[in-house]
């Protein structure tokens, strides 16, 4: 009757397929799952989506994006209660959906020709023969361990990529004696295969879609996803992100893994129209949702040799189901532009600096802030009162934190999450604190839960907090706002911080379990492991007198229901 053994039993029961054999035969086809509720085992996962209350939108239709936000808010604010439990179950169900992107519905979005939010398909860019030869050569290079395992800039995991062109030039440059080694020859052979269709067909296609003759091929590289790619290392995807240094990106499928729109490259959508000036309407399909919640993913259906083209402001990522290997060819396009005064290449991407709607477009603001922070790391420290010393002209007056604040003010969940991390460092000024609090109060008025996540100042008034106390409070507030949009990084960061603050308090453990749970549902491995630790804390600190009392704990029930569909 050891509580820790009970913990293991609960999660093993929900994860073990043999447990379904205990169910009545007539119910097994519905793929239900058992969980302990109100003193007995209950059946979950068999209720159809039509049984659930739809979420109203401005257009009178249910929106996936609004539904995610509503369910997430219910799960957090009604944690430990029936309504919160139902929201957890519904979110888990939605995270299991793998739906294809609809290119036909998206076509109308390019009507104004402003070169933003473009998604286009280029069928059969590579012939079957070219694709077959390319795939075979890539497979041979994978077997020889030639793919780079350097950390990826998005998630710091092994990149498993192979550069063919970098900075507009073939890689590698031949040795001085003119002798290529085996690796160099293999790269040259690959480029000879893909160069003609990329430069002669894809580049003109992209220029035509953007209405520009100023584009150039900047990078061409191969990427691989799957289990045990090299030396036991694996990569099943890459988290949702925006491209900072590519004006346009094209992804070319080298296999049929993505053909049914269930694996591979995806974008995040919200299915409703918006009055926002920077929203691109596609009938009922909009690709401007800044939430990276797993249920909003729409996978691009691509057959071997097909290409998809998207601009820098389209949120995208990659996800491949376990046991599947995927190979793709990626092309980055940039603009040919230099500083008019120095004749040198610009430090920052011109399409960001010269964006027409920079003052109102929260995506452009976030991506520019990311570019500034990457180019000038000191800018992430908001206590720096000087402008960028390395910059020139107007660039020297830009600070990444200012654009992060503007982006968060526009509702961008990525900006909110990043600001939470910046505040956590404590390297902030009082002026920044005032600006940040103004943004937060505009986004979300004070509510009861904020007293819980800000319980570090012993009842002090906001204007009496020290910089350190304000840093803690602001970081949690920003993470909380990001968490409400479905961002698993914000959910995990806030839960981690709460557990560090007060793991001995059950109300804190319950909120942390909820946050870890809704992040774990989206495939966030760190959140899943942390959720297990929260339950272990509950078993150790809860002082339960019986097995049933432990199973009735809101923390344990939250963990159970979060993991139903895992």
Overview in brief:
By secondary structure, this protein is α+β, with helices and mostly antiparallel strands. It contains 18 helices and 17 strands. It has a domain at 99-335: q2cbj1_9rhob like domain (Jelly Rolls, Sandwich).
Q: Give me the secondary-structure category.
A: alpha+beta
Q: Helix fraction?
A: 40-55%
What CATH architecture of the domain at 99-335 would you give? Sandwich
Strand elements, count: 17
Average residue-wise pLDDT: 79
Any idea of the CATH topology of the domain at 99-335?
Answer: Jelly Rolls
Largest beta-sheet details:
8 strands, antiparallel
* Molecular shape: globular
What is the strand content?
15-25%
> How far is the N terminus from the C terminus?
26 Å
CATH class (first level) name of the domain at 99-335: Mainly Beta
Unreliable stretches (pLDDT < 50, length at least 5) are 15-60, 272-286, 339-344, 383-396
Radius of gyration: 25 Å
Blueprint (SSEs and pairs):
Layout lengths: L2 H13 L17 E5 L2 E5 L19 H14 L4 H14 L3 E2 L2 H4 L12 E4 L5 H16 L17 E6 L2 E2 L11 H29 L4 E16 L2 E3 L1 E5 L6 E6 L10 E5 L12 E2 L2 E2 L10 E3 L7 E5 L4 E4 L6 E10 L14 H4 L8 H14 L24 H10 L3 H12 L5 H14 L4 H6 L13 H18 L3 H15 L3 H15 L4 H17 L5 H5 L2 H9 L4
Parallel strand pairs: 3-14
Antiparallel strand pairs: 1-2, 4-15, 5-6, 5-7, 7-8, 7-17, 9-16, 10-15, 10-17, 11-14, 11-16, 12-13
Helix pairs in contact: 2-3, 3-18, 5-6, 8-9, 9-10, 9-11, 10-13, 11-13, 13-14, 14-15, 14-16, 15-16, 15-18
